[in-house]
Amino acid sequence: MLYIALMVFGGCLVALQSPVNAALSRTVGILESSFVSFAGGTLFLGLAVLFFGRGQLMRLPEAPSWQWIGGVFGAIMVLNTIIAVPRIGVLTTAMAMIFGNLLMAAIIDNYGWFGLPVTPFGWRRLLGFVLVLAGLALVFRR
Fold it and tell me: So where does this one cross the membrane (predicted)?
């Protein structure tokens, strides 16, 4: 339950982050607000590593290069939310993002990519997709 609570809290923060970044973009621009968002996150995590890290950062060159691109995915997600929120709203943006997240998660689980255990795609997961997609259709506004 702790991990569920952590992720619900994280989801709340993402919902807050989207309109905050979109508001900043009206002042400084879309790319600039994306940069400020990531710079703030980098500073926060840099301090966390400094004070609470385990000293493993020097092992980074041992990691395969494809493992270094996770931040690029996050930057694209932040940029996309900054563009989408003023046009389709926070709820629709979040639901569309969640649907995309679930879609990729199901593919990863089904094939066991990245060394994760295989979790086959079955009727329950399909029903979950249908319900999320129905919810997205219900909240979408033009």
Answer: 35-53, 65-85, 91-111, 123-140
36 assigned to some structural domain: yes
> Dmax over Cα atoms in the chain, in whole Å?
49
State whether 25 and 82 are in the same domain.
Answer: yes
| 52 is a domain residue | no
Nearest to 106 by CA among 127, 90, 91: 127
Token output for 104:
């990729």
Residues 84 and 94 grouped into a single domain: no
- 0.70 exceeded by the pTM? yes
**Cβ atoms 92, 136 nearer than 8 A:** yes
pLDDT in tens, 100-123: 999 999 999 999 999 999 999 999
Residue 19 is which amino acid? P
Is 74 found in the same domain as 41?
Answer: yes
CB 87, CB 141: distance < 8 Å: no
Q: What is the distance between the alpha carbons of residues 3 and 142, in angstroms, rounded to a whole number?
A: 35
